[in-house]
Specification:
Strand content: 15-25%
Radius of gyration: 18 Å
Largest sheet: 8 strands, parallel, barrel
Bound molecules: flavin-adenine dinucleotide
CATH class: Alpha Beta
Number of domains: 1
CATH architecture: Alpha-Beta Barrel
Order of helices and strands: HEHEHEHEHEHEHEHHHEH
Structural class: alpha/beta
Mean pLDDT: 93
Shape: globular
Number of helices: 11
């Protein structure tokens, strides 16, 4: 097992993101996906935290299962939403005891139904970093938004806050995007602010047109017309996936050529698209 900050110092990383399963059948499916992806030797895998802090136990259980049952380094996502400081302290104690060394500290998305919103003693990702810092145990990752976070008042403020957050973390992972220039411009803007910590681009292969449009609306990402044009009129899901894999492979190649320190794949708990991109790029990890 490893600290991701250390892994990034030794070479390129390739990582996969999963969500905690909702029921027994989804759990079996996730187990199969992880088994299919393990032979690719990912540098690490990460497990999301449900909107509004709704999956505290399930996220913890998947992260600790990966740590115990596989040879893969896991990272737990943790959000500000709906938490007291005591709850976060207990969860971090559990992670430390289980040998988990990596946390992605996030602002978090609110629950879909405002009635599920619980009060929180945290507002911004940096509030979680305050707690993580006192432990001196975890390698800390944060989120970055190449196309600017939807709640940021303007680009300059977004970059200043991101730079301040990243100075306190070991690395960042980006929201997904479809054009390499968004990533390159953000990394350049961070460099202008004196921040050169590794920023891993988040890759979301299009496997379902409607799903990507919905997720892009939530995240503030732009779905360019070359993406929608390429999948327009494709009725067969396998054809959509194949076009999505091709576009994601081209994006990954451009990002690696531009100097990205690794690639982080949003898998949506499926392995096929990621394995195909891996094969297209001839990827290996260090
Ligand atoms: P923050 O860093 O807190 O920033 C949020 C906004 O507040 C930004 O506009 C920022 O500029 C502003 N801000 C920051 N600090 C200050 C300050 N001091 N004063 C005023 N404004 C400030 N969501 C989940 O719910 N669960 C997950 O598991 C999850 N995983 C993710 C993984 C990745 C790789 C990414 C990129 C996102 C993920 N998200 C997840 C979504 C994320 O939680 C949302 O995008 C959220 O709205 C912002 O998170 P953040 O960590 O960037 O927040």
């Amino acid at each position: 097992m490893a600290r991701i900050g250390d892994l990034l110092r030794t070479g390129r990383t390739v990582s996969f993101e999963f969500s905690p399963p909702r029921d027994d059948s989804a759990q079996l499916s996730l187990g199969r996906t992880i088994a299919e992806l393990e032979p690719l030797h990912p540098s690490f895998v990460s497990v999301t935290y449900g909107a509004g802090g709704s999956t505290r136990e399930r996220t913890r259980d998947v992260v600790t299962w990966v740590r115990r049952e596989t040879g893969i380094t896991p990272m737990a996502h943790l959000t500000c939403q709906g938490h007291t400081r005591a709850e976060v302290a207990q969860l971090l104690d559990e992670y430390q005891e289980a040998g988990i060394e990596n946390i992605l500290a996030l602002g978090g998305d609110p629950p879909k139904d405002p009635a599920d919103q619980r009060p929180s003693e945290y507002t911004y990702a940096t509030d979680l970093i305050d707690d993580l810092d006192t432990r001196n145990h975890f390698s800390i990752g944060v989120a970055a938004h190449p196309e600017v976070h939807p709640r940021s008042p303007d680009r300059e403020t977004d970059r200043l806050r991101l730079a301040a957050k990243l100075r306190r973390a070991d690395f960042a992972i980006t929201q997904f995007f479809f054009e390499a220039h968004h990533y390159v411009e953000m990394v350049d803007e961070l460099a202008d602010l004196g921040v050169d910590k590794p920023v891993l681009p988040g890759i979301m292969p299009v496997t379902n047109g409607r799903q990507v449009t919905r997720m892009a609306e939530l995240s503030g990402a732009d779905v360019p017309s070359f993406v929608t044009d390429r999948i327009a009129g494709l009725d067969n899901p396998a054809d959509v996936r194949s076009a999505g894999v091709e576009m994601a492979s081209e994006l990954c190649a451009a990002l690696l050529a531009a100097g990205a320190p690794g690639l982080h794949f949003y898998t949506l708990n499926r392995s096929t698209a990621t394995r195909e991109i891996y094969a297209n790029l001839g990827l290996t990890t260090s």
